[in-house]
Write a structure and sequence with these properties.
Layout (H helix, E strand, L loop, with lengths): L2 H30 L5 E10 L4 E9 L12 H12 L8 E6 L2 E6 L5 E6 L11 E10 L10 E6 L8 E4 L13 H10 L11 H10 L9 E8 L3 H10 L7 E4 L14 H14 L5 E6 L4 H11 L4 E7 L5 H16 L4 E4 L2 H10 L5 H12 L2
Parallel strand pairs: 1-7, 8-9, 8-11, 9-10, 11-12, 12-13
Antiparallel strand pairs: 1-2, 2-5, 3-4, 3-6, 6-7
Helix pairs in contact: 4-10, 6-7, 7-8, 9-10
């Protein structure tokens, strides 16, 4: 067997062992009655009028307090540690009810569930968001009533003229993802209320959602390499900063059969983006990212695979390295040859001006973006 073959075999065995250990610990906790209350975390889904994707996770409730603007660094760090030190519940049974269909799911070794549901009747074509009812069926503590959860599923309405796929770290929220120390400070010492967006982002994304004519309700999707453990923080951050909500597609940072640690950003993002584009074959897309990691290269590959589907690529320039900027401009020339365009922008106002020139937002939106960029 080759070295690569042995590596894959060992990773598969390690992942299986981790799953068995987690399941054994869960059964032991059940027998000893030491479990915290269980909770269903509903992730934002997406779909069409005939099929929708519903995802979530069953975990022990760590009792993480609500974020406050004056929370101390110690309080934020404690919440972050609790968020990452998850006690997942493998083999849990969850009831999912969407429209006129009810389905029972079983969580995997990491507590996740992920399914597609096809309602018997077509859904309304004028709504962007639809509710999903989730309930934990087992395991359940007889002394504690179940806590139902409400998830949400995005379905682009008939008015949508384009869709946006955006990265989050260093594209929407300032995290310093290229600097390990800055990234750790952002994750462990801040919360949803103290994290900062880039100036103008909220106004730009609202403008793209509304469209040049207003009321288009264009969908926005967020694809990031951050772990699912941060889903609640990111969702709350978007709501607080009045940035359009959308499905947030993250990744599992646990041991897998393919890698010991989540080192590959590209494969996760490409797979998620392709899934979205394949689901909505008639919608054109705008892709937004930053220069810090692999977004330009990932988006260039998407343009190559989906010619004429990508209206534009917007890359926030966060790296002072002139060589990196030149490499991105070279990618931009390849994108142009594929009948799209790439803009490397220093700030959000440049993106808004380009979108106005292409007819995707209106002039008033550009003014609002510039006011946010310039500040009070």
């Amino acid at each position: 067997m080759s070295a690569a073959g042995w590596r894959e075999r060992l990773l598969a065995l390690a992942a299986q062992l981790e799953g068995k250990v987690d399941a054994a610990m869960a059964r032991r906790a059940d027998r000893a009655g030491r479990r915290d209350p269980l909770v269903v975390h509903a992730y934002r889904g997406y779909g069409t009028s005939t099929r929708v994707r519903i995802r979530g996770r069953v975990l022990e409730d760590e009792g993480i307090p609500a974020a406050g603007e004056r929370d101390s660094m110690w309080r934020n760090m404690l919440s972050a540690v609790r968020r990452f030190e998850t006690d997942e519940v493998p083999g849990a049974r969850v009831s999912v009810r969407f429209a006129d269909v009810t389905q029972e799911l079983v969580t995997d070794a990491e507590g996740y569930f992920d399914t597609w549901i096809s309602p018997r009747e077509a859904l309304p074509a004028d709504k962007l968001w639809h509710d999903v009812a989730l309930e934990l069926l087992a395991p359940r503590d007889p002394s504690t009533p179940p806590r139902p959860a409400i998830g949400r599923v995005l379905i682009p309405p008939a008015t949508a003229k384009l869709a946006v796929i955006s990265d989050l770290d260093d594209t929407v929220v300032q995290t310093g993802a290229t600097d390990p120390r800055a990234l750790l400070r952002s994750v462990f010492l801040t919360n949803a209320r103290t994290r900062l967006p880039f100036p103008g982002v909220a106004a730009l994304y609202r403008a793209l959602q509304e469209g040049a004519g207003g009321g288009e309700n264009n969908p926005v999707f967020y694809v990031s390499s951050s772990p699912w453990n941060l889903h609640d923080v990111l969702a709350e951050f978007l709501a607080i900063r009045e940035i359009p909500e959308g499905p947030i597609m993250l990744r599992d940072w646990g041991l897998s059969e393919r890698e010991l640690l989540p080192t590959s950003h590209g494969s996760h993002k490409i797979e998620a983006i392709r899934g979205i584009l394949d689901l909505y074959p008639t919608l054109p897309f705008v892709l937004i990212g930053d220069s810090g990691q692999e977004d330009p290269e990932i988006y260039r590959e998407i343009v190559a695979r989906y010619p004429s589907r990508i209206l534009a690529i917007y890359i926030r320039n966060i790296t002072p390295d002139a060589r990196r900027a030149e490499r991105i401009r070279a990618l931009g020339r390849e994108v142009t040859e594929a009948r799209s365009e790439l803009l490397l922008a220093a700030h959000t106002g440049e993106v808004a001006a380009h979108a106005l020139d292409r007819g995707w937002v209106d002039a008033a939106s550009l003014e609002r973006v510039l006011r946010e960029v310039d500040g009070p």
